[in-house]
Amino acid sequence: MNRSTILYGAAIALAALLLQWLEFQYTVRFFSTEIYIILIAILFTVLGVWVGNKLTPKKQVAEFQRNEEALSYLGISEREYDVLLLLAEGLSNKEIAESLFVSLNTVKTHLNNLYSKLEVSRRTQAVQKARELRLIA
Q: Which one of 86, 108, 120, 137 has the minimum C-beta count within 10 Å?
């Protein structure tokens, strides 16, 4: 019984293989032009991407260096700078206070000092001006 099951399974597998082969032959004959066009398009796409990667120079990303002269000229303290970094990350006043282990009023004082030193009136303006002055990345 075991042998007949194996023979029967092999016969069905062979028949399925024959049907798949016939279907492939029909597809190749019926759609031969389209298949070749698709293969050529794929070949040229891969070739174009490869050549583009080889010929395009790699961009060297300069490492960020904060503008120490601007920091000292504006008189921004280290703690105010820490607040500015967290402000640039989009943290709220409460989150900044928790991150720096200070009170909410201390954060507000640092922010007011930053606003006056940077000559801005909003958080987004402070971050934008700090980026323009290369104080933050």
A: 137
* CATH-assigned architecture of domain 68-132: Orthogonal Bundle (1.10)
Q: Is 71 helix (H, G, I), strand (E, B) or coil?
A: helix
pLDDT of amino acid 1: 64
- What distance in Å separates the CA atoms of residue 29 and residue 129, rounded to the nearest whole number? 66
CA neighbours within 13 Å on the CB side: how many for 16? Answer: 6
Tens digits of residue pLDDT in 32-82: 777 778 878 898 899 889 888 888 888 887 888 888 888 888 899 999 999
Chain Cα centroid distance, residue 62: 18
The rounded distance, in Å, linking the Cα atoms of 135 and 133 is: 5
Q: In angstroms, rounded to a whole number, what is the distance separating the alpha carbons of residues 95 and 90?
A: 9
Pair of tokens at residue 10: 């092999």
- The domain limits of the chain are 2-55, 68-132
Alpha helices in the chain (DSSP H): 2-30, 32-55, 68-74, 78-88, 93-100, 104-118, 123-132
